[in-house]
Specification:
This protein has 218 residues and is α/β, with parallel strands linked by helices. The protein has ten helices and six strands. Residues 139-145 have low confidence and may be disordered.
Length: 218
């Protein structure tokens, strides 16, 4: 069984140990390191090469938003899930913009946390319902897309599938194309829309009425 390598980042040791104890019960998830602040987190990613980082947002030296931005810039294949005690519009929007693929509250049920880690490893977006709704409120009403080059019909299909939480493999199977082709479509979509992450693409689809919150697995 392939292990999902996870790095825990939180300035409270008791939180890290609680997460570590739970994740140790998951046969496909392995905690490969811990960090107590954002600076240490960025350094640890380079050393332990995790698949997924569980990232606290409020930390000394460098907060989770800054750490997420640095990690995604240096190690774009590493996925980051924000794990915080509160939902604040500015914090949610900032960490999503920084490249986080998920946003969960620390009181998340253990089973949902494990599911979110597995989703992140597959490249699927996972947002806490409160976070998703706050983002939608912050985004405001639907607008018409304003892009330099419009999306093709196939790219729109891929974008909607992304917003529904489908992985590259699921999209590839549905459209009867290779995963490499799906990755190319995703890259084109992000480039045309001026976005940096799949999470931002999901929010774009929501904003422009391509999907609704009910379509997204939260």
């Amino acid at each position: 069984m392939e292990q999902i390598r996870v790095l825990l980042v939180d300035d409270h040791n008791v939180v890290r140990q609680g997460l570590k104890l739970f994740l140790a019960t998951q046969p496909d998830i392995e905690v490969v390191g811990e960090a107590e602040n954002g600076v240490a987190a960025v350094a640890a990613v380079g050393k332990v090469q995790p698949d997924v980082v569980l990232m606290d947002l409020v930390m000394p030296q460098l907060d989770g938003i800054g750490a997420t931005q640095q990690i995604k810039t240096r190690y774009p294949d590493v996925e980051v899930i924000a794990l915080t005690s509160f939902v604040e519009d500015a914090q949610v929007a900032a960490v999503v913009k920084a490249g986080a693929i998920g946003y969960l509250l620390k009181d998340v049920q253990p089973a949902e946390l494990a599911a979110a880690i597995r989703s992140a490893q597959r490249g699927e977006v996972h947002l806490h319902p409160q976070a998703a709704r706050r983002l939608m409120q912050a985004i405001g009403p639907k607008e018409q897309p304003a892009v330099a080059e419009p999306l093709t019909e196939r790219e729109i299909e891929v974008l909607k599938a992304l917003a529904r939480g489908e992985s590259n493999k699921q999209i590839a199977d549905t459209l009867v194309v290779s995963e490499k082709t799906v990755k190319a479509h995703v890259s084109n979509i992000l480039g045309k829309l001026g976005l940096q992450s799949r999470t931002q693409a999901v929010l774009y689809a929501l904003r422009h009425g391509m999907v609704s919150l009910e379509d997204i697995p939260l």
